[in-house]
Every structure is written in C-alpha cells, then in structure tokens.
Amino acid sequence: MIVVLTSATDVFNDVAKATAETINTMIYLEHVLGPVKKCSHLIVNNKIFRSFLIFLCFFLYCEVFHYAVVMIQCTWPSVPYIQSSDAGYGTNIKVMFIADTHLLGFRQGHWFDKLRREWQMKQAFQTTMLIHKPDVVFVLGDLLDEGKWCDDEEFLYHVARFKSMFAVPKGTQLHVLSGNHDEGFHYMMTEHKHERFVEEFNSPSVRILNIKNNLFVLVNSMAMEGDECSICLQAEKQLQEIAKNLSVLPDCLTTTDNRCKTQPILLQHFPMYRASDSECNTEDSAPPQEKTIPFRPRLDCLDLRSTHLLFSLIQPRLVISAHTHHGCYRVHDNKVPEWSVSSFSWRNRDNPTLLLARINHQNFSLAQCFLPRENTVINIYILAVVVIVVNLLWPSISYKYRQKMC
Fold it and tell me: Which of 121, 230, 360, 364 has the fewest C-beta atoms lying within 10 Å of its C-beta?
C-alpha cells in the first residue's frame, strides 16, 4: 500500500512539474513573439506602412537588383584558343569597351539629372565588374562633359568623381582615351588642357600597349588634325616610331618569342572617316532620321587624310571608336572592321551599351551588351505606384481574418 501511495505521489509531482514547465514556456513565447504579433498587426492593419514596404521593394529592385538581372544575361563571346608553350603567348584576354560617360559639371544639367545619371553608370559599371570580371577596360573618350571649359580645380574634382565611379578591382587594368569634351575640339584644345589630362589619366596622344601579346594602339583623335600644331606633330612622330618598331618585330606565326609582331587593334574617340551613319544597322545605331545627316570631317569623324595615315602606319586588324553616341559596325574597303561604341550614359540614349570582347594574337570576337532601358525602369516604377494605390484603396481586412492571421 505504501508503494502505491509513493507511485501516485511521483505521478502527481511529474504532472505538476510538466504543468509548470508548460506555463513557463507559454510565458516565454508570449514574451518573444509579442513584438512579432504586434509587427504583423502593424503590417496587416497599417496601409501606410504596407505602402512603404511595397515602395522599398520596388526601389531596391530598380536601383540595385535590376542591373544584375540585365547584366547577367550578357555573355562573353567565344574565340578559338591558341595553344603555346609560352605563358603569355596566345592567351585569350577579356576586354570591355565603354565610351562617352559625360560626367556632368556645374554648367549644364539639373542636379537631380546629374545625381541620377551618375548612380546609373556606377551601378551598371560595378555590377558588370562583379559579374563579368574583365581583364582590361578601355574608356574611349568624353569621360567628362565639361572638361573643355573647367579650370584646374574643377577638373581635378571631376577626375576624382570619375575614378571613384569607375574604380576597377585588383587584377583588372583600366585605360582611358581623351575625347573632345575632355580637352575640347582641336580649335579649343590647348597645351595646358592636354597636359593635365595626360598627367591625371596617363593618356598621351599616342601610345601602344602590349597586353599578353595583344597590341593596342591608342590615339587622341583631336591630335589627328594634320595642321602641324605641336600636339599634332608629336602625335604623328610617335605613330611613325610605332610603325617602325612594329616593322622589325618577327611574325608571331614564325616564332615563339614573346616580343613578336601581331596586328594591333586601333582605339580612338572619333570614328574613321565615313560620309554618315547610313551604313550602320546595329540595334543601337542612330535613329532613321539621323542616319543620312552628313558627317563633318574633324568634328564627327576623322578626315580622309588621317584615316589613310592610321591605316597605312598601324595596319590594324580592328578599329574601336565612339563619339557619335550611337553604335555602328562597318567594314572598310581594306576589309578592316570598325565598331563604334554607343554612349554609356542614359542622358544620351535610352539603351546604353558596352562591348565585350575576347581577343588573342590571331583572333577576336565581340558582343554587344545592353544596359537596362530607362523606359523599363520607369514602367516598373509606374507599376509600383499602381500597386500602392490599390493597397491604399483596398477595403480593410476583416477583424476575424486578422485574428486568424495572428
């Protein structure tokens, strides 16, 4: 009998202990989940708060994630890989070309326009760096919009902004060319404007780069005027020296020497001479009403003299240019192809582009990559407004339903 009483006492104690633990657990959960219930009540009941969350989601998508969604759809083109015993010989390099960023200054454009365009370009550029990781980036002139007008202090301020926006990760090279908005057209260009651009960007009028046995010749288009000004004479002298040095190098097809001759790729701001954009049929080419407008040599493109001079001295296998803010692909009479890169700024066009290229000493392949369309982003924001309005006008959720939700 004593055993039975002892067992009943133990059972009673166990039940009491379990009940106490359950009560403590409920108290703890009430303490922890109380703010969650209050927050859920706030979300369900407060239309203003819900509207704020809806706007925040749309804002983050448009200003951050949409760039990644668009840029991830771009792919590097393929090009045959050249096998070689030399570490650098025949290596494919990934190159990105952009142009005409036109960072606004203090004279033109509204402050919001400036803020908006710089945010767009920085997001697009840095997202591309993160996703595609190019080996080399070339910016083909008109980095600044008002470089031709600003004094030295203002110029350095814009240079710092550019270098911040278009910073590249370790392992990626960045090279820039001068454009007519950086130094001015030839009639506006001075020794001082030229020298300060050269000093800040390490971008002389003419230079040659050897990147893993791929040669790039970079030329300042405003120095191709041919009027015997000091800058023009120096540029043509450097072109002659490059042509002479290239002529004595052994051909890469007959030697494994790391210093061998490959056909260079010519990079410049102005396109080679062409009568107009009438032959340009890429998706980002000029609108039909602009294609037949005649080009003005030395303002819209190089003149025939400078075009022939560059072709004869450099003998490029490919020309990459910019300046018109529109894309173009054409093949010259000497069978040399030329790509003109459209503007990277949404201020100049609704659908900016960049070029992605794989290059080795024998072959190259290029692909256009379109950035987010301005109209698409605007339409997404319009959708956000519609959703917020519907949220504000929608009848309140019933009290019973809210109780079930909570």
Answer: 230
